[in-house]
Amino acid sequence: MEQLIVVLFLVFFALEFTIEFVLNELNLRYVRARSAEKKIPDFFQGNISSDEYEKSVQYTLAKGRFERWSMIYSRCLMLALLFSGLLGWLDRFAGGLAHRFSLGLYGHGILFCLGVSLVFSITSLPVDLYSTFRLETKFGFNKTTIGLYIADKIKVLILGLVIGVPFLFVILWLMDVMGQFWWIWAFVFISGFQLLMIIIFPTFIAPWFNKYEPLKEGEFRDRILALADQVGFKTSGIYSMDGSKRSAHSNAYFTGIGKAKRIVLFDTLIEQMTTNQGLAVLAHEMGHYKMKHIRRMLIVQTVFLFIGLYILSLLVDYPPLFAAFGLTPSNHAALVLFSLLSGPATFYLGPLMNLLSRKHEYEADCFAALTLHDGKPMQEALVNLTIKNLSNLTPHPWYSAYHYSHPTPTERIEAIRQWAA
Ligand SMILES: [Zn+2]
């Protein structure tokens, strides 16, 4: 039985890797070929200089080549972790520590989970460092200093411990004492926990990493408030965030729920856009809210969580699974195995979710165009964002269908033009 599990895992693992690797190669070739033909999509002709286009091609190719190697690296690591006996060794080591310091079974489980995540943090560091300090720096996006980078890592570590350890403790306790239906209790707990995080994130966690300042009084702010009023969007404030201290990439979003929703604009976005374009971006974001996209996505994720926990509840009582990867059956080993193995088994859900997300993006664009009684600002904002972020103008259609949570800028602009016509 153990062999069958290993074979099954390897089949899914290889399938996922092959699909992602081939798509990346196809995309690289496609972009290179379009660039050689100098085929800029219609709408961008006249809007983008040949220098900017060339730079966006180079950025896309550099990221794609880097992705090729980081994909191979991460897959090798995963195989090494699963089949080298390291997991079993970590489990025994955590057990030994827990025994010496009388931390009990939950302490053992928590130490094991921490050990596994430490392995991932350390091994992903080279990839992260290269991406931030070489790739992003080369194309002028990175603004992070080494000091800020280290401070960020330490803060994430502290948060992980302060929030993650009690969270794990409750899950392990529920698995231990709640009997057969522990997973329903875990489901209720995790759902409540997520809700709590949504509420406390904007006021207690996010300000630790960035400075949030109420948007300066003036025309832009007045028009945003008027827009919020017009579409019936309740907000507790509009904030500008100093995204520029880490990266020149720009963005806008809102966080929180109910009346406590905050609109957050990156300072980079405010700087790069005209008032009309910025307003179009916000109308788009409000569109997501008004059309209940966020609620719908949350519901879908909650359903996945429910199914996932049910499957986990079956795996906990299935010893051959543990044996296949060199582990002794336990609740914490089940948690770790489940999170490691679920990737290759659920990778096809990603493109499906992206399909739903792209549908939402079209709807939000349409909402922005209708609300502003004009499709132009949204189109201009998209062109502007695409150029400033050096986004790929010509992704391979299969690549974008699989990976993109947003339709390509060209697709979005064409769609807005059709509605506006
Ligand atoms: Zn959107």
Look at the helices and sheets and give the structural class. mainly alpha
Distance between the termini: 62 Å
H/I helix tally: 16
- Specify Rg, calculated over alpha carbons: 24 Å
Please tally the β strands and state the result: 4
Write out the strand line-up for the largest beta sheet, numbering strands in chain order. 1-2-4-3
List keywords for this structure.
single chain, 4% strand, binds zinc ion, globular, 16 helices, mainly alpha, 421 residues, four-stranded mixed beta sheet
Give the arrangement of secondary structure elements.
Elements: H1 2-37, H2 50-83, H3 86-100, H4 104-138, H5 146-177, H6 182-209, E1 212-214, H7 219-231, E2 237-241, E3 252-255, E4 262-266, H8 267-272, H9 275-290, H10 293-315, H11 319-324, H12 331-346, H13 349-371, H14 376-388, H15 397-403, H16 409-420
Parallel strand pairs: 2-4
Antiparallel strand pairs: 1-2, 3-4
Helix pairs in contact: 1-2, 1-12, 2-4, 3-4, 4-5, 4-12, 5-6, 6-10, 7-9, 9-13, 9-14, 13-16, 14-16
Zinc ion binds at residues 284, 288, 361, 364.
Quick take:
The protein has 421 residues and is mainly alpha-helical.
Can you tell me about this structure?
Helix content is 75%, strand content 4%. It is built from 16 helices and four strands. The chain has helices spanning 2-37, 50-83, 86-100, 104-138, 146-177, 182-209, 219-231, 267-272, 275-290, 293-315, 319-324, 331-346, 349-371, 376-388, 397-403, 409-420, and strands spanning 212-214, 237-241, 252-255, 262-266. Strands 1-2-4-3 form a four-stranded mixed beta sheet, with helices on both faces. Strand 3 and strand 4 form a beta hairpin. Helix 7 packs parallel to helix 9. The chain is globular. Zinc ion (ZN) is lined by residues 284, 288, 361, 364.
